[in-house]
Amino acid sequence: MDCRIFAERSITFPNFPTSTDMNALASRRDFLKQGSIGGMALASMLAREPLQGAVVPSSDLHHPPRAKRVIQLFMAGAASHLDMFDFKPELVKRHGEKSDFGEHVEAFQNGLGPWMKSPFEFKRHGNCGKLMSEIVEPLGEVVDDISFIHNLVGKSGVHSQATYLQATGFQFPGFPGAGSWVSYGLGSENEDLPSFVVLPDHRGFASNGPKNWGSAFLPTHTQGTTIFPQRTNPIEDLHPHADYVTDESHGEGIDLVNRLNRMHQRSRPMDSRLDSRIRSYELAAKLQLSATRALDLSDEPAYVHKMYGLENAGKKYPKDINPEEETEYFGRKCLIARRLIERGVRFVQIWSGNDNSFPRRNWDSHEDMTRDHPSLSLGMARGTAALIKDLKQRGLLEDTIIHWTTEFGRMPSSQAGKGRDHNPFVFTNWLAGGGFKGGVTHGESDQWGYKPLDRKNPTQVYDVYATMLHQLGLDHERLSVRHNSIDRRLTDVHGHLVKEIIS
Q1: What is the pLDDT of residue 391?
Q2: pLDDT tens-digit profile of 216-229?
Q3: Hey, which of 11, 172, 400, 495 has its CA 20 to 30 A from 489?
Q4: How far is CA 482 from the centre of its chain?
Q5: CA 401 to chain centre
Q6: Cα(128)–Cα(438) distance, rounded to whole angstroms?
Q7: How far apart are CA 133 and CA 311, in angstroms?
Q8: Could you give the 3-state DSSP secondary structure of residue 292?
Q9: Cα–Cα dist 258/274, whole Å
Q10: Which of 67, 70, 77, 141 has its CA nearest to residue 351?
C-alpha cells in the first residue's frame, strides 16, 4: 500500500531503495546534471520512491494537528538576545563595572571585559507590554502573536557545532535537517515543488553550508532544495546554462534518457521502481514551470512589495553593511516563503548571515554591536513582521509555524569595548502561529543574561522541536528511523513539550 505505516514507536516506509539501487543510478544522475535538470529536479525525481509526494492523511497522524507547515528563520553567527529581546536592567545599572560571574566562565575568545548594557533603547510593545529593542521595532507590531523562550541553552560555543545542533538536533554532520524530518513525517502537498526549500543569505552559505539541510539517512527527496531568489538563475541546473543548449535539444536529451530507461525497463518487467523514476523525470518539466512561477513577484501588488521592503529592488548598495540592503534581501525571502507555502511546500528555511568573513556579514559581532546588529536586525524585523501580518490576513498564520532561532547568544560582558563574545549558556528563540500562544514569554535568563535563571530546568532545542512536531500532529518519540542499529529521531533521546506556549 502506498502510504506510511504508523507503528507504536515509529513511522516506517516500505520498499526503500538499497545502496546498490542508488549506486546504479549514478551514471544517469551525472547524465541528467549535464542536461541541466540537476539539484531540485533530481532530489524530487530520483528518490521520491515509495510515496511519490503523497500527503499523509490527518487521520493517520499521531494526533490532530494544529499546523501544516513551518517557516524557520535562522540568524547565522549568533544573534544577541541581550540587544534584541531580553532586556537586563542590571546591565544598565552595572555598565562599565568589572564583570564578575561568580564562577569560572568558558569564553570563546578573550571576551570577558566589563559588564556592558545594550547600546540600544528598549520600550514596551503590544498589549502584552513586551520590552524589545529599537533595532527590532517593526516586530512590535506583531509581538502579540509571538511566544518567546528566554532560557534556551546550547552545548557548544563553536559556530559549526552549534549550528548543526539547532538545524539538525545533533552537534555533528550526518543527520537530517529539521525540514527533512517534517517532510518525512508529513509528505508533500504539491508534486510540482519540493517539500523542503532553503533560502540562504544572498552573500552565501552559513557555517556548514548544505550539510545543515541534508537528508542524511532519510529518503533523498526530503533534503532541502537551495534557492537564491536574488540571482538571475535562482536554482542551479534547473535550466540550461550553455548557449548551444536550446529548448529543442534539451527536450531531445530528456527524450533520449526516457527511451534508454524504457529499454532498461523492458528487460526487467518485475521492477516497478524504474517506472516510478521515469514518471518522476516527466515531472521535471512541471518543476521548471512551477518553481519559476513561485519566484516571480511581478503579480504581487505594490502595497505588498512595500510591506516587505522591496520598493527599492534593484538598487546598488554600498559595500558596508546597511539596513536597506538587509531589508530588501530578507524581505524578498520572506515574501517568497509565503508564496511557497501557499503552493504546498512543507518547510521553508530562511537564513540571515553567511559564514565568517571580514568585514562581518553575519551576526557574529565580536568587534562592534552597533556596526553589525542594527542593519541585520532591522532588515530581519521588517521582513518578519510583514510575513506574520501577511499570513494572518490570508488566514495562513493559524496553521503555519514561524520559528526564529540562532546558534547561541552573546555574553553580557564586553569584548573589544563594543562587541560581545559567544554565549552558548543561554539565548532566545521565539515562535508564532500554528497554535502557539501570542504575547507570552517562557523561561527567564538570570540578571545578567548569562545562564538560565532556573539552571535545573532550562529549555533545549529538543524541547522546541518536540513542541513544533506536536503542533504538526507528530509525536517526536514515534517519528523515528532505524539507522545503524539505532532508532534515530530529530530530538535524539531528549525532548519535552513546552506546554506553556501552546494552546
Answers
A1: 98
A2: 999 888 999 899 98
A3: 400
A4: 25
A5: 11
A6: 9
A7: 25
A8: helix
A9: 11
A10: 77
Place of cell 545599572: 93
Full set of structural domains in the chain with CATH? 60-233+289-501 (3.40.720)
The per-residue pLDDT for range 31-83, each reduced to its tens digit, is 333 433 344 444 444 343 433 346 777 768 999 999 999 999 999 999 999 99
Query: Between 272-295 and 38-46, two packed helices, what is the crossing angle to 10 degrees?
Result: 140
Rg, C-alpha atoms of the chain: 23
The CB-side HSE value for 320 (13 A sphere, CA atoms) comes to 6
Cell of residue 450, nine digits: 548569562
Closest CA to 432 of 474, 466, 387, 463: 387
- Would the CA dihedral through 135, 139, 144, 147 be positive or negative? negative
Amino acid identity for residue 338 in this structure: R
* Helices 369-393 & 323-342 angle (0-180, nearest 10): 30
Furthest-apart CA atoms within the chain: distance in Å: 80
Exposed/middle/buried for 474, CB within 10 Å: 0-12, 13-18, 19+?
A: buried
Question: Which of 388, 479, 464 lies closest to 432, judged by CA?
Answer: 388
DSSP bridge pairs for 69 = 400
137-140-141-142 Cα dihedral, nearest 10 degrees: 130
For 300-318, the pLDDT digits (tens) are: 999 999 999 998 887 899 9
Cα–Cα distances in angstroms (integers) from residue 113 to residues 94, 180, 370, in the given order: 12, 41, 17
Orientation of helix 247-266 relative to helix 26-34, angle to 10°: 170
Per DSSP, 16 falls in state: P
Distance (Å, rounded) from C-alpha 457 to C-alpha 442?
A: 12
Q: How far apart are CA 490 and CA 470, in angstroms?
A: 12
Residue that is written with C-alpha cell 557545532 in the block: 161
CA distance 63 to 58: 8
Grid coordinates in use for 352?
540571515
Q: How far apart are CA 352 and CA 195, in angstroms?
A: 21
**Residue 359, preceding peptide bond in cis (omega within 30° of 0):** yes
